[in-house]
Amino acid sequence: MWASAAGGSRPFGPSPRAAPSPRAMRVACIRAHGGLGEMRLEDWPEPVPGRGQALVEIACCGLNQLDLFVIKGMPGVAIEMPRITGGDIAGTVSAVGAGADAAWVGRRVLIDPLI
User: Fold this and answer.
1) What is the chain's mean pLDDT, rounded?
2) Can you identify the CATH homologous superfamily of domain 24-111?
């Protein structure tokens, strides 16, 4: 769901956590530890919001220090790969799952990456 620097080939693959959707989203994905060269721009299936969740169409997103730690690898911390980068997100709620208030659809939101 996120903007990034990308280069070389752009492999495509589904998110292991995403439910099937007819729409695709562009993500900055880390497939392995290393440097910024490990980030790739990929198309992934758009996730479907689960119970009590919201789907946000991203307008802008920052690459922050946590993303750099993930790319470099943190000793003693296992990080599941592949991983979509990005934090400090602003966008618009495009869908909500069961049990979520439908009034959120269309609202502009800011997402705190610590939540």
Assistant:
1) 81
2) Medium-chain alcohol dehydrogenases, catalytic domain (3.90.180.10)
